[in-house]
Amino acid sequence: MQMEKTVVLYPGLAVSHFVPMMRLAGALIEHGYAVSVALIDPTAPDATFSAVVASTAASMPSVRFHTLPLVEDPPTLIPGAQFIVSYFDLVHRYNDRLHDFLGSFTRVHAVVVDSMSATAFGVTKRLGIPGYLLFTSSAASLAAFAQLPYVLAEGGGTSFKELGDTPVELFGLPPIPASHLFGELLEDPESDTYKSTMAVLSRIPDSGDGILVNTFESLEARAVAALGDPRCLPAGRVMPPVYCLGPFLGGIGEPKERHDCLAWLDVQPDRSVVLLCFGSTGVANHSEEQLREIAAGLENSGHRFLWVVRAPHGDDPDLDALLPDGFLNRTGGRGLVVKQWAPQAEVLRHSATGAFVTHCGWNSVLEGVTAGVPMLCWPLHSEQKMNRLHMVGEMGVAMEMVGWQQGLVQAGEVERKVRLVMESEEGGKLGARVAAHKEAAAAAWDDGGSSRAAFARFLSDVEGRQAPARTGEGA
């Protein structure tokens, strides 16, 4: 009897990292692989993450979920600047648990590791199992991250923080203002946060046997070409094979009942509604002052809107207290305010949605592109500022909400940009460019498409790296 082909996935402890990994699981199952998921304690990050894991496990019965046994005295994830240090410490502490889990299989064809858990490659190498990194952001971010450890050493300055808005020159990418790099690199170079981050970035060329990226070639042609060019890294350093397998889309763990906001959209005219949604976790919620500016801008724009609101400190939002007096009554005929969460992907695919105000998280960018919805950029944290550069620049799928860098986008700017994207000739051209990318995204997974071909190369590479089966109990 032929032994089933098993891939083990090792996702990161964040919704934005977990969801693409589970969408990869769906693609692997469709191609005849058995998929097991190894999880570090899902309750470690927050209740939101554990709820997403639970709902996903319930909705994907063909995937085997296994929570690794708790380590003794596990480190606590510390919010703020120390988060990344505590996160890497937590992942490192679980390497022995992962080793035992992988060792229980007769054969594992491959292990796919989240980009934040690359320390696990020490385990896969010891066991002789092919290991691949899943990079959940853009190809441009991957190209930047791979090069950043070498920039300052080549005379780029003493620290990224001191460079301010000075552009950082990277091969194959447009100049990136140093202020747009993710926050951990703008810390003191002597801090644990900076050192840990730089150590992880410097190990990207050693990321197992290949890197899977959630993008498609035509969306980021220049960055994808750079990743395959020897000039991307200093002499002696070589990138492993990069497979652009995106976009990873489709619902996982979504409620069976249809959200009320979709019924509201059903009765709105086509392409008439502006969606405002700023991520799955509320890591950087807007201040009360900012919420009031958004409200005033939406009201003055005259356009329909669907706005997902979170309280500044993560509590259940009291909309009457947070928003201007009478706002909900005055806009009730053309606007809908939803607390905490809405099914963003479904809303974007709805025919009534005409624009998307987004924090520029990569999953959201891909959902906007594949729905053909033009975007307004409002980055909040992580690599979102870098994404904004590419969205407005080379991709041409978005405009920028000016003021985010100063910490407050004024009501007048909200009104202007909503009107611009919804009413103007420039907004029409933006929509046409996004529509072209939507078609290209669909074509990437069609027969002969770039992502389908890359996925076939990845599976062929996995098959070509197989070692003889070991004696084991299976799992």
TrEMBL record:
This is Glycosyltransferase. The keyword Thylakoid does not apply. Belongs to the UDP-glycosyltransferase family. SUPFAM superfamilies: UDP-Glycosyltransferase/glycogen phosphorylase. It is an enzyme of class 2 (transferase). It comes from the Eukaryota. Keywords: Glycosyltransferase, Transferase. Its EC number is 2.4.1.-. One of its GO terms (molecular function) is UDP-glucosyltransferase activity.
